[in-house]
Write a structure and sequence with these properties.
Mean pLDDT: 79
Strand content: 15-25%
CATH topology: Rossmann fold
Order of helices and strands: HHEHEHEEHEHEHHH
Number of helices: 9
Radius of gyration: 16 Å
CATH superfamily: NAD(P)-binding Rossmann-like Domain
Length: about 200
């Protein structure tokens, strides 16, 4: 944990939070190989589990955001981020870049800015609200942007899906290498395939 550049007070949370991250990105966001991931509050107790799990699952790029006061720690961390930036500079700091999954344990204005950073047909994953700001996202932006919001709360998830807890805890300690960058142009799956990719089923 010392080598990862983590505050010792946060280190004890890494294993359960890595398991939480694994459940969130596999069971809720349904992450796919080669996807681009943005993690807010990148050095926080919950967020530190996400970059390693994303790498294990084949993320092609993982970017983190932090407060300006944490940028120094961000430059020193050995967590597998490609880049860590100041969240106050969103969305301008990432202008022209789009992500497939945005993981947000922060909420507030950071969550609002995230909507404009998602590629069409992709997912915002709220996993907390550390800011205490209950700012609401404009649902029309979700609709017109062809986006999805998948909330994840492990406290409500695990009592119902206890059988998934053990596999999530049995994680590899060494992330696999990042996948090759994705092409800039993408063909979007048909609506039927989208449903299947997310594990949904239609009824007749």
């Amino acid at each position: 944990m010392k080598d990862a550049g983590l505050d010792p007070a946060l280190a004890v949370a890494v294993v359960p939070n890595a398991a939480t991250a694994h459940l969130a990105v596999t069971q809720t966001a349904r992450m796919r190989d080669g996807e681009r991931v943005l993690v807010h509050g990148a050095l926080g107790g919950l967020a530190v589990g996400f970059p390693g799990i994303a790498r294990q699952l084949g993320a092609s790029r993982v970017v983190g955001t932090v407060r300006a006061s944490d940028l120094g720690a961000g430059r020193q961390t050995k967590l597998p981020y490609d880049e860590i930036i100041d969240s106050a500079e969103l969305p301008a700091r990432l202008a022209g870049k789009r992500f497939d999954i945005v993981i947000d344990p922060v909420g507030g204005s950071v969550r609002t800015a995230s909507v404009g950073l998602l590629a069409p047909m992709e997912r915002l994953l709220p996993v907390g609200n550390a800011s205490g700001d209950w700012h609401q996202i404009d649902s029309n932006r979700i609709w017109l942007g062809n986006l999805a919001v998948h909330g994840f709360s492990v406290g409500f998830f695990l009592p119902r899906y206890k059988d998934l807890a053990r596999p999530a805890l049995q994680l590899r300690s060494v992330p696999r290498p990042p996948a090759s960058p994705r092409p800039t142009s993408r063909r979007f799956p048909s609506p039927t395939r989208q449903w299947r990719m997310h594990g949904w089923r239609t009824t007749r």
